[in-house]
Amino acid sequence: MPSVTRRTALRSAAALPVAAAAPTALAQSPLAQPALVPTAPPTEKLADRPLFGATSWTLPNGLRVVLAESRRVPVVSHYLFYGAGAGEDPAGKSGLAHFLEHMMFKGSRNVAPGALSLAVAREGGQDNAFTSRDVTAYHQTVEASRLPLVMRMEADRFAGPLLPGATVEPERAVILEERGSRIGSNPRGRFWEAFEAAMWGPQHWRGRPLIGWEEEIRAISRDDLHEFYAARYAPVNATLVVTGDAREAEVRALAEEFYGAVPARPFARRDRAAPPAAAGEPRFTQTDRAVREASFLRAAIAPSLTWGEARHAWPLEVLAHLMGGGPGSRLHAALVETGLATGASASYDSETVGAGTFTLSATARQGVAPERLEAAVDAAIAALLQDGPSEAETIRSIRQLTAGAVLSLDGIGSAPRILGGVLAIGLPLEMAEFWPRYLREVTQPQVAEAARAVLGQPVGTTGWLLPGAPA
């Protein structure tokens, strides 16, 4: 259930290489390999023109269609995004959006169960789906001439999924097994799940796990699945993204023929609760026999491009890189280079629905007391708040962040995720086309102000995952 932001899209671009071949390992971060595409124009020029040159239009039933042409190879990617993710799970029914994603593969009015995936595989293509906090998406990558095939089958799934009752229990077992492998057998997965629940509350939309709490997964009914589909899977709440070797006239005709037949209907708009005024548990500690090194995590509630002081969103992206973007960052210097930690990082996602999270993390070197590492983190934050970031490190962070724009132009794996991920959460197309420009316009004073707003008086939680027997 990966996220679909710029960051993950760029990191996973190489998982769908320019030819529709078998899946490969994820590429390294574009920040570490900015020269992967030497023929691409410099980042400074990319900031002044749209990255994808996408065309967008809306069908009479409300479905938005986006096309980003690229004729490097005869391959197309076809993504259908719904503006509904785990954040829309009803209270007490966490995991419903993800459960429905699984059930959407159980056939539709004119497509037998499993036939879509089989047809794509026979054509040498790939198909899959994912659920994030904000969206659910279904996608295929095929040779360009097979675009009508996947459009027809995906549109049929959109219009009338079967959700057969006989498959609910077997699929529930699959999901519970997935939960066990992702969380139950993963000590860091267990810690992260408990940490978010401690910070936000176990029934807040951000405090619930994407895959759902086990007891709530067990209680989801077929009626619940139908109700979620009927409320959220409407054309006006969906975005179709086609990228690769496709012509606008062809895509317009195919979209009208197949998706235009999906009836328009009302949908339930997002209605997410505000963040808590104070963290449920300001400090959270968990011990686990399966871990050997202590792990530190601190998260603070932060604005995003859709919530709160949105003007801080782009500066916070720069701040996250400046604080924990690898060698050269402040946490790396304060923790790794001093021998206190084996690794340190910071993360923040501006492209999310509702309140965001600014996170600092580190893994203590064996023998280092947790209190000593945490004191070093506090000192690094205090120095930043007192003196602000330097102009040089601000510029360096922006350059390294925008270097990823080069990779976003290569292959076909990142473009649909970047475009659909932005549009499906209600942001304008310009946010995807010109994100290097938005970052390049960030100034040192803006980063300092964003740091004071989020790290100066944080609402959040500090957590530790420690070796040892559970308390």
TrEMBL record:
UniProt keyword list: Hydrolase, Metal-binding, Metalloprotease, Protease, Signal, Zinc
Domain (Peptidase M16 C-terminal) ranges: 220-401
Signal sequence, start to end: 1-27
Keyword Metal-binding: yes
Cofactors (names): Zn(2+)
Domain of life: Bacteria
Gene3D superfamilies: Metalloenzyme, LuxS/M16 peptidase-like
Family: Belongs to the peptidase M16 family.
Protein name as catalogued: Insulinase family protein
Species in which this protein is naturally found: Belnapia mucosa
